[in-house]
Write a structure and sequence with these properties.
Layout: E1 5-6, E2 15-16, E3 30-35, E4 38-43, H1 48-53, E5 60-61, E6 68-69, E7 82-85, E8 90-92, E9 103-105
Parallel strand pairs: 3-9
Antiparallel strand pairs: 1-2, 3-4, 5-6, 7-8, 7-9
């Protein structure tokens, strides 16, 4: 499940692969979601963070430095994994389970 990611605004569009790679997965139902307008698939029980990082090398770009971010503490304390739904609701990607039909916006338009 590797996919390439473009960072908008970079000369030549720097390419990278998914940060997380699935191994020996079986028995979990596929869950469809949309990330920055791109339809993707996760597995039931994935957090939003896991769902995104199996398709991308980054979750978002920092609003302060512009640097790529992929979560930090992975338990909801550092607040480095905020993303939003298309309706504007903010959520922590590391502590929110992916849901069928979820429509997410990361602020990293090149993700996915």
């Amino acid at each position: 499940m590797t996919s390439s990611v473009d960072r908008p605004g970079t000369a030549g569009n720097t390419r990278s692969t998914a940060l997380l790679q699935r191994v020996a997965e079986s028995g979990r139902k596929p869950v469809g979601f949309v990330l920055n307008g791109q339809p993707l698939t996760a597995l039931a029980g994935d957090t939003v963070l896991t769902a995104v990082l199996t398709h991308s090398a980054r979750l978002r770009f920092s609003e302060f430095s512009g640097e790529p971010r992929a979560g930090f503490c992975l338990m909801g304390a550092c607040q480095d994994c905020w993303v939003a739904t298309e309706s504007g609701k903010r959520l922590r990607a590391c502590g929110t389970f992916i849901e069928e039909g979820m429509r997410l916006v990361t602020g990293a338009e090149g993700v996915a």
